[in-house]
Amino acid sequence: MFKRRNIVSAIDIGTSKICVLVGCCENDEPLSVIGRGEVSLSGEVVKGEIADMEKVFEKFSAALDLADESCGGELNNAVLTAMSITGCNIGSFQTSAPTFINSNEGRVTMADIESAYSAIEQKPLPGNQKLLNTVDSYYLLDSVRRVRNPLDQAAQKFELFCHVIYGDATRIDNFTSLYRNVGFDDQPVLLFSGMADLYGIISPEEREHGVLAVDMGRGTTEYIAIFNDGVFASGVVPVGFDHVANDLAIGLGLPIETTRDLLVSNTIPQAVTSGSGIIQIKQGSQSRRIPLASFEKIIDLRLRELFTIIKNSFEDRNVLRNLARGGVITGGGALFPRTAEIFQQTFEFPVRTGYPYDVEHNLGELANPRYSTVWGTLKFAEEQLKLMLQNRRQGMWATLSGAVGNVGESAWRTLAGLKNSIKI
Length: 424
Known about the structure:
The protein is α+β, with helices and mostly antiparallel strands. The protein is built from 14 helices and 18 strands. It folds into three domains: 1-90 and 167-199 and 357-424, Nucleotidyltransferase, domain 5 (2-Layer Sandwich), CATH 3.30.420; 91-166, 2-Layer Sandwich (Dna Ligase, domain 1), CATH 3.30.1490; 241-292, no CATH class. A hairpin with a 4-residue loop joins strand 12 and strand 13 (221-227). The protein starts with a strand and ends in a 6-residue tail after the last helix.
């Protein structure tokens, strides 16, 4: 029997690397990774912002070529491409749209729900800002009842509460223009990097019972809080694990390349385990003996400051108290042992390190916190493709054609629709 190969792709342009994944969904079979391209960056992207467009374009083209070669030329057949976005002065806010029930039976219809979403998407953003994703928080019936699914429920009015994520339009255009300039005709679906982690490393149980996902990359740290399947807070801190290396370089008078190597190697954890209390650093023909405590103090101060900034960003502290599953720390910074420990001390709830997972396949090298964002972005692309095919089968393709980018704006709502479940 002929199998239809539905191809999707994901793009993550971070501070340390550009990564492209190509995935395949054959009929109803699970997503499989059939192509991958990765190119290292060294200063072309700073804190999630493109600092050198020409060099980033060259390396982006190289990553695409590697991905296309590894999948046998399937990249150009991608039905949908998703691109993760961070930096770009990303902000977010909670908002709601009250809607009076229009049906004669006094029950919530799909038209009522669509009207509420339309009202939210039409709300003005700060100057020169672009909407990235609109994410469900919860529904409220008659101002008193939270429900998982308002459809067909009797009520006089209902209110949709959403989390809106946006970013600077011109900075976002720097990323999307790279995609256009390499020769693609369509536009990628954009996804906030923090949202990608919800697709790639957070379990359904964690989304239901509440969790804070924190992705600590080289130049930025993204965070997002979700419980009862609704997103209630998100943001980007322009501080990443490279700032720890920079603090060590300044505080201890060491080259930053040396401190970076110390952080990614097992040198510091081994010194802790052995109880030696001293780390010996070679500098040319000489060597220095530096107390382990000096490294630990600088590292702890920077990590504690970062996590305190995130904690203090929650205007509603009840959100943190509702996160029954605690926290998940991912990204390259999560591989350093002290990161999770200080996270737990700062937030005072349990934490685990988040790894990309797939119950159907062994992800191999991708099963590493460094690839959480790009893997989550590919999973998001898969969900978007399912929605598009579902709507096409139902004769609703006209509502989506010519506006693929808009499909991704209601990011979490589409996932809920695929599961026939709307969040509580």
